[in-house]
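ok, trying the design again with the full structure, not the truncated one.
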């Protein structure tokens, strides 16, 4: 059964409405299932609920869950096709240990014994700070929570971060800086009733297809909302926009400052609401005053009249939903820019009301949970590392003394962890379900660090990747459908995903691997009992509920039983809100009280952290914070040697480094190869025709791929970042040196001063023709998202 060919028809038929989004059930099964098992999709933060079809112990298809509030039955191409990549011939089914330079099969006892022996040896000899954990946005809540207690109270290391540093670190920091804690203020239901959308650096049509269906149904239905899109490329949303703003890379902040200035100057603000519910207005007004449309036009390259048009929509629409993603988060001044989008809503009082919210969007499916559970540099349950009461509260819950939780230094962010590994102070890195050998910037450097004899690398993964190739121990992980747990999407909806089939071979869930590690390390609480008191997913969830109680992400009123059968539920779920909470801040009171907030905030320009005393001296005490920042010129400008700017991103058919989508035949077939997107003018000046092989060089590396000409402004080059050295579809290693198809060969080792998110969307590059694409066997150059749109 196939409800549609979602490769050809990405978003499916329209279901327009007058306020309540109708259901449309999407399904794809290759055999008749004997039973359906409840789950949700793990390929983006939309969090679409689905059922897994099972026959004779195998997954044979999926269908969207009609009862679920998030997707009402719909699924996009990754939801419908990616599951087929889970059970390929090359799945990791047995532990591997490196012996004499080669990874060889081992028993679990041997592999875990090796990991435990090394952990103890390094901890004794060099201290807890010699051990780091680098995790993912794809584990389940129960797994992150277990990882946190092991890292914090077991090992006692502050070196723990997720690859969410690469995608949603700025989302959480932007929320904290403005509203006091992490957590999306709004709900996807706001999409159904808003009068305007403002998409800032968010190619929703490619990255969150079901959310884009929800927007398309409004754009094609009655009471069409207006749409403003900020994107340097003419993406699908840009083509649907009333106003498309295409800033030069690195100039989001001047554009947003100019929009704020116009709102204030033209009186499109709500002074009474600002007065009652915010602090910082005067400083913000002063900071943006000089950003006239004309000055912003000179800096961003966007015509001044177009900036004014956008301001009028944003400033006069009765309601507004803004969404922000990687075009902001992975660019320069990421947090400073993301916060300005929050400011636009605060200036108009458009938050906490139906149709009025801002989504600092997540990228990965369970990114919200790594943040909640404290496996990414935040303290567990959005507590404050700098607040001794919060540390004590957590220590009490874990039955440990407060000084066992490493709060004497800020948590180490991922880019710094790799620096420490390079310098030799981190001597063991445990990498869980992520592929930094493709996804981190400046890959030549990252490969060298991971391959170093001085670094002991443990990797949990379901498949061989460019990173497992460099590991000392590989632990075969069970994946989605093979384990039970919960995860939470970008509008705080918690879903339960049940085990549908057994993992292949000896693969184990990450939770089982971590519990086994905790047992073997014999971690104890202060009374001599086991530190980790749970034995499986549901008991971990029950423990987490207590830990989250009283915090913004309060799960205390939720249970597996409640999550089974019906729709997912939005946290907080407390005794007084047993069915969850659609919107936060409906009373205009924010989480900024000094005793409650998650951090004391930062200077957005320098990243300098405010002290507790500084924050308390001007305690916002429940008011949102309007924070300003001025533009800082980029660190690398185009010059004679590198005259163009590179931006990287995604295509609709792939997720991250294609570890799974590259193994799903339809998805890999739809987007088999890297491409280099160029403007007509730049291609013509370099003598490059569509499909020709192009060599792209930066100061750090080289990428070669076929040209795709058009859809992008002169001066800009786009390369999707999915394509590493490995072809996961057939396990073929393309080049010994790990290149040259990975966009991150070219990117810069640099990061936002506040969120520490790397700059993936900013690097100066040069292009030249490298040959005839067809003659060199290159896959046809394509930009599949736009081609699918053109076919419709
Ligand atoms: S929109 Fe995201 S969660 Fe939904 S089916 Fe697509 S990839 Fe999965």
């Amino acid at each position: 059964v196939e409800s549609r060919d979602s490769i050809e028809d990405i978003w499916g038929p329209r279901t327009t409405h007058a306020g309540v989004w109708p259901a449309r059930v999407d399904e794809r099964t290759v055999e008749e299932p004997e039973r359906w098992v409840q789950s949700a999709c793990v390929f983006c933060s939309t969090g679409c609920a689905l059922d897994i079809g099972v026959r004779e112990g195998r997954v044979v298809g999926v269908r969207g869950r009609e009862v679920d509030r998030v997707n009402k039955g719909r699924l996009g191409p990754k939801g419908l096709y990616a599951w087929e990549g889970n059970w390929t011939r090359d799945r990791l089914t047995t532990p591997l240990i490196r012996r004499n330079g080669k990874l060889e099969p081992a028993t679990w006892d041997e592999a875990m014994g090796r990991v435990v022996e090394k952990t103890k040896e390094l901890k004794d000899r060099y201290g807890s700070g010699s051990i780091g954990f680098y995790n993912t946005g794809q584990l389940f809540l129960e797994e992150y929570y277990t990882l946190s207690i092991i890292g914090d109270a077991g090992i006692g290391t502050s070196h723990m971060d997720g690859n969410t540093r690469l995608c949603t670190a700025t989302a959480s920091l932007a929320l904290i800086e403005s509203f006091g804690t992490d957590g999306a203020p709004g709900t996807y239901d706001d999409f159904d009733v808003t009068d305007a959308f403002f998409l800032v650096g968010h190619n929703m049509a490619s990255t969150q297809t079901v959310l884009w269906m929800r927007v398309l149904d409004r754009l094609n239905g009655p009471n069409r909302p207006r749409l403003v899109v900020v994107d340097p490329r003419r993406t699908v949303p840009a083509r649907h926009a009333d106003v498309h703003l295409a800033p030069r890379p690195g100039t989001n902040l001047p554009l947003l400052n100019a929009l704020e200035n116009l709102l204030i100057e033209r009186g499109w603000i709500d002074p009474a609401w600002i007065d009652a519910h915010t602090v910082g207005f005067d400083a913000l007004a002063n900071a943006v005053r000089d950003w006239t449309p004309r000055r912003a036009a000179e800096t961003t390259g966007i015509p001044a009249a177009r900036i004014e048009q956008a301001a009028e929509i944003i400033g006069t629409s009765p309601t507004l939903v803004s969404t922000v993603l990687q075009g902001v988060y992975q660019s320069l001044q990421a947090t400073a820019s993301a916060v300005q989008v929050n400011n636009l809503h605060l200036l108009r009082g458009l938050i906490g009301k139906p149709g009025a919210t801002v989504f600092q969007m997540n990228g990965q499916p369970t990114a919200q949970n790594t943040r909640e559970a404290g496996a990414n540099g935040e303290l567990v349950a959005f507590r404050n590392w700098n607040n001794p009461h919060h540390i004590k509260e957590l220590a009490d819950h874990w039955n440990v003394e407060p000084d066992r939780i490493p709060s004497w230094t800020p948590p180490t962010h991922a880019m710094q962890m790799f620096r420490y590994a390079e310098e030799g102070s981190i001597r063991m890195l445990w990498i869980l379900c992520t592929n930094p050998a493709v996804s981190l910037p400046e890959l030549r450097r990252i490969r060298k660090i991971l391959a170093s004899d001085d670094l002991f690398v443990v990797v949990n993964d379901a498949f061989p990747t460019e990173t497992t190739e460099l590991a000392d121990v590989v632990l075969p992980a069970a994946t989605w459908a093979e384990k039970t747990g919960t995860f939470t999407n970008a509008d705080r909806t918690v879903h339960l995903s049940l085990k549908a089939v057994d993992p292949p071979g000896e693969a184990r869930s990450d939770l089982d691997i971590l519990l086994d590690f905790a047992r073997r390390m014999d971690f104890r609480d202060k009374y001599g009992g086991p530190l980790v008191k749970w034995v499986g997913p549901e008991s971990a969830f029950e423990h987490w509920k207590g830990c989250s109680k009283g915090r913004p992400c309060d799960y205390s009123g939720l249970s597996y039983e409640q999550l089974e059968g019906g729709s997912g539920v939005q946290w907080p779920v407390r005794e007084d809100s047993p069915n969850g909470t659609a919107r936060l801040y409906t009373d205009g009171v924010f989480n900024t009280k000094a005793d409650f907030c998650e951090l004391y905030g930062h200077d957005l320009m320098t990243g300098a952290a405010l002290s507790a005393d500084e924050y308390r001296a001007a305690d916002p005490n429940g008011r949102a914070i309007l924070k300003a920042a001025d533009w800082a010129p980029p660190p690398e400008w185009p010059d004679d040697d590198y005259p163009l700017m590179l931006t990287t991103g995604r295509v609709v058919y792939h997720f991250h480094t294609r570890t799974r989508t590259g193994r799903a035949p339809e998805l890999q077939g739809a987007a088999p190869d890297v491409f280099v997107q160029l403007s007509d003018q730049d291609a013509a000046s370099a003598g490059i025709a569509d499909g020709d092989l192009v060599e792209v060089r930066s100061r750090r590396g080289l990428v070669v791929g076929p040209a795709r000409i058009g859809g992008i402004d002169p001066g800009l080059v786009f390369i999707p970042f999915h394509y590493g050295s490995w072809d996961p579809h057939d396990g073929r290693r393309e080049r010994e040196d790990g290149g040259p198809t990975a966009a991150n060969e070219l990117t810069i080792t640099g990061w936002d001063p506040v969120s520490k998110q790397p700059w993936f969307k900013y690097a100066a590059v040069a292009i030249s023709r490298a040959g005839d694409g067809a003659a060199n066997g290159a896959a046809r150059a394509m930009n599949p998202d736009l081609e699918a749109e053109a076919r419709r």
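Keeping the full-length input from now on. Residues 729-733, 735-739 have pLDDT under 50 and may be disordered.
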